[in-house]
Design a protein that fits this description.
The protein has about 250 residues and is of the alpha/beta class. About 50% of the residues lie in helices and about 10% in strands. The protein has a domain at about 170-250: Collagenase (Catalytic Domain) (3-Layer(aba) Sandwich). It has helices at about 1-15, 20-30, 30-35, 40-55, 70-80, 135-140, 150-160, 180-200, 215-225, 230-235, 235-245, and strands spanning about 55-60, 95-100, 110, 115-120, 125, 135. Helix 9 (about 215-225) packs across helix 10 (about 230-235) and helix 10 packs across helix 11.
Length: about 250
């Protein structure tokens, strides 16, 4: 009965709040990863983007104005990771806060000695456990200009990672996925890339991935959707694990 009610609500939402064809074509033009999808997957993505816009509050700040085309674009990027997973994977949080540009979160941080500091790191995005996703609109618009980068996919990957606790690079895996294999693949890739970094080699992935296992998963997810061929070439085992997790074959 619950599934019937939920499906009825989904159909009603899609019928009452459809994304206009012109807005959808604009989103596809501005989102290369979505443009590469086949017609059936694009149709599914359009449904998910519709549900995202109705279930999440998009909140521009600092005088930023997001028109309908901007909101559809943001939702399109956000729903790429759940194309084969469904909206349920984004349950438990409600808002996307959008800054015009990179931002500096001002909150206290306690170091190992117990001293309280104010953080001053410039950020393009941030995801809070059961709280909001925060992104820089300038970085959203730069998606595709810097190969392999997608700030929205990055933060949504963190959200998926946190479904089973803290962000640690180990999202809830599907029943037929091997937890030990996931750990082996990501740990092995991490160790090899760390060694290459120490030796001054050019890395096949954004070095920010080596900040933590959580960032490794999020950065690899960006590349999986934005430059899948490069990820499969340089980190084939990581690519295959993400292929199983996202249930997608973007290349």
């Amino acid at each position: 009965m619950f599934n019937k009610i939920r499906n009825w609500r989904v159909r009603r939402t899609i019928a009452r709040h459809p994304i206009a064809e012109s807005l959808w074509r604009d989103a596809l033009q501005r989102c290369p990863a979505a443009r590469r999808l086949g017609a059936s997957d694009q149709a599914t993505l359009r449904v998910l983007a519709t549900l995202f816009l109705e279930s999440k509050s998009l909140e521009p700040t600092k005088g930023l104005d997001l028109d309908d085309a901007d909101r559809v674009l943001l939702a399109t990027h956000a729903c790429l990771p759940i194309l084969k997973l469904g909206m349920d994977w984004y349950d438990g949080w409600h808002s996307v806060i959008v800054y015009p540009d990179a931002f500096i979160p001002r909150r206290p941080q306690i170091d190992a000695a117990g001293v309280v500091h104010q953080t001053h790191a410039v950020m393009a995005g941030e995801a809070w456990g059961r709280g909001p996703v925060i992104v820089s609109w300038a970085d959203v618009l730069n998606t595709g200009k810097k190969p392999g980068h997608n700030v929205i996919v990055h933060e949504m990957a963190h959200k998926l990672d946190m479904l089973n606790g803290d962000a640690n690079g180990f999202p809830p895996l599907h029943r037929r996925m091997d937890r030990r294999e996931w750990s082996r693949v990501f740990s092995s890739a991490w160790d090899r890339l760390k060694e290459e970094q120490r030796n001054g080699a050019d890395l096949p992935i954004d070095p920010y991935a080596l900040e933590s296992p959580a960032e490794f998963f999020a950065v690899a997810s960006e590349q999986f959707f934005e430059t899948p061929a490069a990820l499969r070439q340089h980190l084939p085992d990581v690519y295959r694990q993400l292929e199983q997790f996202y249930r997608q074959h973007p290349f």
